[in-house]
Design brief:
heterodimer, A: mainly alpha, 3 helical TM bundles of succinate and fumarate reductases, 4 helices, 76% helix, elongated, B: mainly alpha, 73% helix
């Protein structure tokens, strides 16, 4: 391998992957757990699910705790995934930068909204 | 551009219009590309997902608005179209979820044989499409 440091360093824009690979697994596993927890509560509810039952699932403090962690995990997971897609298919650096910025704005805005909904429950 | 980046060969002989429609992907390839497509779909529809979360849990009143959006429609968007979008999200979530579990299982168990790759891909596709059909029938009131 030729010189790959200092001004000669190959700029790939994403580091070398292990951290993202691991983060993608950990955040994915957390969201899968959350899915099972929510589904279990929906299925174990007796009778039809109206507003009280549905909002009740998210109203308890442990569920708020978990849901908040899941929102952060989702933000991180989607960032890694979407950035991978931009890096694979979008070659012009300028266009890629615009899409990266768009993704960050889109995701932080969505995460803020979701947290706001959760907080006022 | 560094020297290293310059020397890498590039193959750009795939034409999206003439080659991709006839390109035969193996089952694992379908799971992979659908994992991406379902991810992008959920990424783009994220504001809609949070809108549903917001309206469904905020109050009795907003919950009624949430339900009505799928039964009678929302603004100029008819209810059946809202249900169709919801169904697309249901498929995307199921596929992404099951394909994700497949990834985790492969990583944890080192299950990287060619046979397992194929059989688990077929299971992933069958489960995600099957469950989507079952839930879609429920969503559109077929049972």
């Amino acid at each position: 391998m030729s010189v790959n440091y200092g001004s000669k360093r190959t700029v790939v824009g994403a580091g070398y992957g292990f951290r993202d690979w691991l983060a993608q697994r950990v955040t994915g596993a957390l969201m899968a757990l959350f899915t099972v927890v929510v589904l279990a509560q929906v299925i174990l509810t007796s009778g039809p699910i109206g507003y009280e039952q549905w909002a009740g699932i998210f109203a308890s403090q442990p569920m708020k705790f978990l849901t908040f962690a899941v929102i952060v995990a989702l933000l991180w997971h989607v960032w890694v995934g979407v950035r991978d897609i931009w890096m694979d298919y979008i070659k012009p650096v300028g266009v890629r930068l615009v899409l990266h910025v768009f993704s960050i704005v889109w995701l932080t805005g969505c995460a803020g909204w979701a947290v706001q909904v959760l907080w006022r429950l | 551009m560094t020297e290293l980046a310059k020397k890498r060969p590039e193959f750009r002989n795939i034409n999206a219009l003439s080659d991709l429609p006839t390109y035969r992907l193996p089952p694992a390839g379908w799971v992979s590309i659908l994992h991406r497509i379902s991810g992008v779909l959920m990424f783009l529809l994220m504001p809609f997902i949070i809108w549903m979360f917001d309206n469904s849990i905020s109050s009795e009143f907003s919950f009624a608005k949430f339900s009505a959006a799928f039964n009678v429609g929302l603004g100029f968007v008819p209810g059946w179209f809202m249900k169709l979008v919801a169904l697309a999200l249901i498929w995307a979530y199921l596929h992404h979820f099951i394909a994700g579990l497949r990834h985790l299982y492969m990583d944890v168990c080192h299950a990287v044989s060619k046979e397992f790759g194929k059989s688990s891909a077929i299971v992933t596709l069958a489960l995600s499409i099957g469950l989507t059909v079952v839930l879609g029938a429920k969503l559109f009131g077929l049972y």
